Amino acid sequence: MANEFETKIQAAASGDRAAYDDLFANNLPALVAFLRAKVGGELSARESVRDLAQSVCREVLRDIDSLEFRGEEQFRAYLFLQATRKVIDRYRYHKQEMRDPARVEQLPNESSDAAELGLYGALTPSRVAGAKEELSRVEQALQMLPEAQRDAVLLSRIAGLGYAEIAAQKGISEAAVRGLVARGLARLAGLLGRTEPPAPPS
Q1: How confident is the model at residue 185 (pLDDT cuts 50, 70, 90)?
Q2: Mean pLDDT across the chain
């Protein structure tokens, strides 16, 4: 399995489109959802979430020859770690540089978001509107969680990482990760007025 994944990495690095899609395009919807929950405040008016996600993919692909991964989950963990670093970097950039408001790039509208996440063809206009409203509620609730709980929930439920990989990334124990996820989901359910934690995205 490791050799198969290494072959896929090498193929993507050499420009193989199928290998690239397997590594990056298949992770893009989750990466966009992760970034939407991480990007807030002033940054959300200045940066396109889709552009941030694509930038993360390009940068990981650029450095992929010098990186080593045990398998797909470790690769995915690194991809989402780089996404977190990208958000921090962009916050610092906009804090240091006073940008001209006329040059600010707006976030994509609901149509481009739906297309990015592959929703068209599966949802009617009313369902798209309902899904967008629900997504907005979940994103707002996520912003109300303590950062440690929010990151644990995002990495577990959006990125799809196992507790061991999250623990390694955060430098904490698996038990601590389980606790953060459980408390985060319970608080999220309360904020959304549900009796049970929200189900992970399909």
Answers
A1: very high
A2: 77
CA atoms 41, 42, 43, 48: torsion sign: positive
| Numbered ranges of CATH 1.10.10.10 in the chain | 144-192
For the full predicted model, state whether its pTM sits above 0.90: no
Integer Cα distance of 3 and 71 in angstroms: 9
CATH no. for 1-104: 1.10.1740.10
With 0-12 / 13-18 / 19 or more C-beta atoms within 10 angstroms meaning exposed / middle / buried, residue 178 is: middle
The segment(s) of the chain belonging to CATH 1.10.1740.10 are 1-104
Which alpha helices (DSSP H) does 14-109 contain, by range?
17-23, 28-38, 43-46, 49-63, 72-96
Q: Which residue has the tokens 């992970």?
A: 200
CATH of region 144-192, choose from 3.10.450.50, 1.10.10.10, 3.30.200.20, 3.40.50.10490:
1.10.10.10
pLDDT tens digits, residue range 99-153? 444 444 443 444 444 444 443 344 454 544 555 566 677 778 888 889 899 999 9
CB-count burial class (<10 Å; 0-12, 13-18, 19+) for 80: buried
